Amino acid sequence: MLGTEVQIPRASGPSLTAYAALPKGASRGMVVIHELFGRQPEIDRVVERFAEAGYAAVGPDLFEGVTKLRCIRQSLATIGSGEGMIAERIEDARRWLCEHGGLDEARVGVIGFCLGGGLALAVGRHYGGVSTNYGDLPPAEVLRRSPPIIGCYGGRDRVFRRNAERLPERMAALGKGDQVETHVFPTVGHSFLTDGHHPVASLLSRPLFEIRWDPAVAEDGWGRIMAFFERTL
After folding, report:
1. CATH of the domain at 38
2. Which residue from 33, 51, 90, 131 has the fewest beta carbons nearer than 10 Å?
3. Alpha carbons 200 and 205: distance in angstroms, whole number
């Protein structure tokens, strides 16, 4: 394994558990925001994927110490405003990564999945680039100071696939249409980029989300995401 569990000090309250990997000589960094399921092994593997590519990376457990229902509510509030408890926890992780990785803040990106995809957009103003994956969209005002964005969506995800069109429209209305790219992968649904095993959620997700990991499609998506961060960071 490339990473290890760490404790991230917070300005207020107890420290935050995270999974981090700090490759020697890394000049770029990535904050990884987990799905609705919370921190899971597949999200730790995303941290390791970035480390293998030479990035310092950290994936905080944003739900730690709080009931999941409250965290989901707080996350939705952050997507709507760009502020709040969840935003503060993400910022603590970003600050820790910059300090411990010796990184220039402009060379740190953020990537999020599912609920985390909306959170990545909501806090994107603090980063050099954003990868949002099958998540919700913040209001235009929250997106106003966004850096370049890449969005990936599953064509069989009947809930979030429409955001592949809505996100560029929202950014274009802000005069930032040239700073966003979106990709739709027609044969897959929700959560297609990570290899988590959640059989009950997959069963209950039909027919709206069609949660299914497809390795070939996932690697196509990851290739686009990594190329995007190579350009922007």
Report:
1. 3.40.50.1820
2. 51
3. 8
Three-class secondary structure of residue 150 per DSSP = strand
Residue 76: both structure tokens together:
């939705």
pLDDT digits (tens, 9 = 90+) for 214-225: 899 999 999 999
Burial (0-12, 13-18, 19+ Cβ within 10 Å), 179? middle
Residue 34's SS3 state is coil
- Total count of domains within the chain: 1
Domain that holds residue 164: 4-232
Reduced to 3 DSSP states, what percent helix, strand and coil does the chain have, rounded to the nearest 5? 45, 20, 35
Q: What is the pLDDT of residues 131-169, one digit of tens each?
A: 999 999 999 999 999 999 999 999 999 899 999 999 999
Yes or no: say if 108 and 29 are a contact pair by the CB < 8 Å rule: yes
127-129-133-138 Cα dihedral, nearest 10 degrees: 60
